[in-house]
Write a structure and sequence with these properties.
The protein is of the alpha+beta class. The chain has helices at residues 40-45, 59-64, 72-76, 85-91, and strands at 2-6, 9-18, 21-27, 32-34, 50-52, 69-70. The chain has a single domain, classed as Hypothetical protein Ta1206 fold. It is built from 4 helices and 6 strands.
């Protein structure tokens, strides 16, 4: 686990190597930013705020990447498809 500071906010980063890829997750107090391995329908069933970015291999790329999918709970927090991962995380801090 890694501690990430983004605009004075603390997030928890997790990177799990999987064969030739990585499972990446950044957790805030009210939601999380995940890579394409995460399942939006499960997040919706659990009423979790999740934003998904794809084509990323590290935290910096996650923050810069455009959000491709958003759970219902994240939508209610203002997270939208097309915003950056950083913008999404700051809404879910």
């Amino acid at each position: 686990m890694d501690t990430l500071i983004i605009e004075s906010n603390t997030f928890q980063g997790n990177c799990i190597p999987i064969l030739e890829a990585k499972l990446l997750l950044i957790i805030g107090n009210n939601g999380f930013l995940g890579c394409g391995y995460f399942n939006l329908s499960t997040a919706n069933k659990m009423n979790q705020a999740l934003a998904i970015v794809t084509g990323v291999s590290n935290y910096d790329e996650m923050l810069k990447a455009q959000v491709k999918a958003v759970s219902d709970a994240a939508l209610k927090m203002g997270v939208q498809i097309g915003m950056s991962g950083k913008e999404a995380l700051l809404l879910m801090k």
